[in-house]
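Can you please make up a protein's amino acid sequence together with its fold in token form to help me picture the idea?
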Amino acid sequence: MHPPLTLHRHPMCAEIIEEFQKCHLDHPVKKFFGECTDLKIKLDRCFRQEKALKRKANFEESKKFKEQLQAYKREMAEKNEA
């Protein structure tokens, strides 16, 4: 199973999505017998790569946020002591 194949949500995989959708249109019956399987495998790999990049970016963003939060907590503790 794959996520909805909207091009704006998966810009990295747009080309493969278009090929996969074209394959399904060109082979309405053969698609059930593996005609588009190679494209499906490429699509799955692309989605995994895309997700890994998003996960890394989110992790980096969360690290920055945690650092800012720690700095803010230290600042508030220093104000309360003074």
The chain has a mean pLDDT of 92. The CA atoms of residues 70 and 76 lie 10 Å apart.
